[in-house]
């Protein structure tokens, strides 16, 4: 019996060694293929960013700091002291920081109560309401600018406040977008906090205010600080909102670059301001990245499975604050936009503005009908979405890895920062840079500047960071031991990727598609440089209409803004419905 058991054990041990040998052999054979696959996953996004983002942006900056012909160009840095010696430069920089700071503070004050209501309280309709409040973040900036102008400008219901073309109007519009960022960033973190410290403090006699200041707020600090850095970045680089609501008086660095390049062709001054914006963006991104990593570590150690509470009387002040935010900040401008698009100058209800979109009157700024602009916008958005999602998925797969090598970890951090750069660099700088550099790039036999191919490329660059930040948390939530166990059982790296990573990636695919399509559909800054005569996208058409004199042009701008807002809202609600159980940083 002993001999028989020893023989069986020997056979099992031998079979185990053979299986282990086969698995090892498969891993060795698949290693070159895996190396090639991961190399391509890094090279494709980096190559795309280098060709269509870094090169155009650096070329524009270099053009501003050189003089002479291409053969005899020499460095000229005299523009730096000249630009900084002008009082307007410091006024523009100060206004940029003031508007971004005020917008960030207001977004935090309104976003934290919204996070509590939508993530810590349980009530019917919470899910649809949370999805609906994602829409303000992705509404095209030109639509929001027109909506607040309709609310606060001449003829608007709040025109008596005198806030049109002023600082307060800009800050309110910036908060319109970014309350959603705070709500989702802080709320997702808040829902995972361990409730036991709060419960213990209340059992020891602490009141709600003391529990908030001593327990809850310190625990939320990583998420609040991360959201604040991100919101500051978005506010500092806002373009269409400031252009519509602020004019030249309240110019920021972004709109000043546009004015200098489009109206005066002053590339030297624009290049200096572009460097200022790079410095602001780089600082905000470094802070945001560090705080994001801190928040991710806190989430990894946080309590799971927290159940939301039912609303109580003690929650009434927070609920009222949230309701006022939704009704006054979000709903009122949008409803005013819709109402004014349905009225003529005499105040009568009419569909004339919408009819003019399909049959423009004589002298209209709209080239062709709105249907042409819608179809063109959808075509560009479809191509841009495909580019952004493919490149974002490849980048997310790379960034989700945790290599042991310190060099590889630094490389992953570099890739993360590179992909996020388009989020903070001026779309105006990008658009003008593409016009400067895309004359037969890399020896291509035709001039890309004369085609429309650059428009979806620019839109994809704007959407790529949103896609990445949507997909990455789902992949980083995978326990590394799952991949290790699959590899020990003989699965090749590509098999691990197909059976573990891609299914998890699919959980956030719907939301990523929605963000990419909405961002591409509403992109205005870079597209305004790249559109060809007779081929307007809908945001560019709205910008042209709002800049022309005449009641018909203004009414058509309102109606076109409503159509664009409805399209983006439909896309985001569909994406939220399809998002599955994935998580994202938005």
Automatic annotation (TrEMBL):
Q: Which GO terms describe its biological process?
A: transmembrane transport
Q: Name one GO cellular component term.
A: plasma membrane
Name of the protein in its database record: ABC transmembrane type-1 domain-containing protein
Could you tell me which Pfam families the record lists for this protein?
BPD_transp_1
**Domain of life per record:** Bacteria
Q: Tell me which PROSITE patterns the record gives.
A: ABC_TM1
* Xref: InterPro entries: MetI-like
Q: Which species is the source of this protein?
A: Leucobacter soli
Tell me where in or outside the cell this protein is found: Cell inner membrane; Cell membrane
Keywords (alphabetical) are: Cell inner membrane, Cell membrane, Membrane, Transmembrane, Transmembrane helix, Transport
TM ranges are: 32-55, 97-119, 131-154, 166-191, 212-245, 270-292, 313-332, 380-399, 419-439, 451-472, 511-531, 554-575
Which residues are in the ABC transmembrane type-1 domain? 93-288, 374-575
The membrane topology noted for this protein in its Swiss-Prot or TrEMBL record is: Multi-pass membrane protein
Q: Per the similarity annotation, which family is this?
A: Belongs to the binding-protein-dependent transport system permease family.
């Amino acid at each position: 019996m002993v001999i028989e058991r020893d023989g069986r054990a020997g056979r099992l041990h031998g079979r185990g060694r053979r299986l282990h040998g086969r698995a090892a052999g498969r891993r060795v054979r698949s290693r070159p293929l895996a190396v090639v696959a991961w190399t391509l996953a890094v090279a494709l996004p980096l190559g795309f960013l280098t060709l269509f983002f870094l090169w155009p942006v650096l070329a524009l900056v270099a053009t501003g700091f050189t003089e002479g012909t291409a053969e005899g160009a020499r460095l000229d840095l005299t523009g730096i002291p000249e630009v900084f010696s002008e009082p307007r430069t410091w006024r523009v920089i100060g206004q940029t920081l003031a508007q971004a700071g005020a917008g960030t503070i207001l977004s935090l004050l309104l976003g934290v109560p919204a996070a509590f209501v939508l993530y810590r309280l349980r009530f019917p309709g919470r899910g649809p309401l949370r999805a609906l409040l994602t829409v303000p973040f992705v509404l095209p900036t030109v639509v929001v600018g027109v909506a607040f102008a309709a609310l606060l400008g001449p003829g608007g219901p709040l025109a008596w406040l005198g806030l049109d073309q002023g600082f307060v109007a800009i800050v309110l519009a910036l908060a319109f977008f970014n309350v959603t960022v705070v709500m989702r960033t802080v709320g997702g973190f808040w829902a995972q906090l361990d409730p036991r410290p709060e419960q213990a403090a209340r059992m020891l006699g602490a009141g709600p205010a003391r529990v908030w200041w001593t327990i809850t707020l310190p625990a939320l600090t990583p998420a609040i600080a991360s959201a604040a850095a991100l919101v500051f970045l978005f506010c500092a680089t806002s373009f269409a909102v400031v252009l519509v609501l602020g004019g030249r008086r309240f110019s920021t660095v972004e709109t000043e670059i546009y004015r200098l390049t489009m109206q005066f062709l002053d590339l030297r001054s624009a290049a200096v301001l572009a460097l200022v914006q790079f410095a602001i963006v780089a600082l905000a991104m470094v802070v945001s990245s560090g705080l994001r990593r801190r928040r991710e570590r806190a989430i990894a150690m946080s309590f799971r499975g927290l159940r939301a509470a039912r609303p109580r009387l003690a929650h009434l002040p927070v609920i009222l604050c949230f309701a006022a935010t939704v009704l006054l900040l979000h709903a009122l401008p949008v409803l005013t936009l819709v109402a004014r698009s349905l009225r003529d100058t005499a105040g009568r209800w009419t569909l004339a503005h919408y009819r003019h979109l399909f049959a423009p009157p004589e002298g209209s700024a709209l080239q062709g009908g709105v249907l042409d602009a819608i179809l063109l916008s959808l075509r560009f958005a479809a191509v841009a979405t495909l580019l952004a999602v493919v490149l974002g998925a490849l980048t997310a797969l790379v960034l989700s890895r945790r290599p042991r090598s310190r060099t590889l970890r630094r490389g992953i951090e570099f890739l993360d920062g590179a992909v996020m750069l388009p989020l903070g660099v001026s779309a105006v700088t990008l658009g003008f840079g593409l016009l400067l550099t895309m004359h037969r790039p890399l020896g291509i036999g035709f001039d890309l500047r004369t085609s429309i191919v650059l428009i979806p490329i620019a839109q994809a660059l704007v959407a790529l960071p949103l896609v990445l930040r949507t997909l990455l948390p789902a992949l980083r939530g995978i326990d590394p031991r799952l991949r290790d166990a699959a590899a020990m059982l003989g699965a090749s790296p590509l098999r691990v990727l197909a059976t573990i990573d891609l299914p998890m990636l699919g959980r956030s695919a719907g939301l990523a598609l929605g963000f990419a399509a909405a961002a591409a559909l509403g992109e205005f800054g870079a597209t305004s440089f790249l559109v060809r005569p007779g081929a307007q996208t809908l945001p560019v058409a709205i910008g042209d209409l709002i800049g022309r004199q005449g009641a018909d042009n203004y009414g058509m701008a309102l109606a076109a803004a409503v159509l664009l807002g409805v399209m983006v809202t439909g896309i985001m609600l569909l994406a939220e419905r399809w998002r599955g159980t994935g998580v994202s940083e938005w």
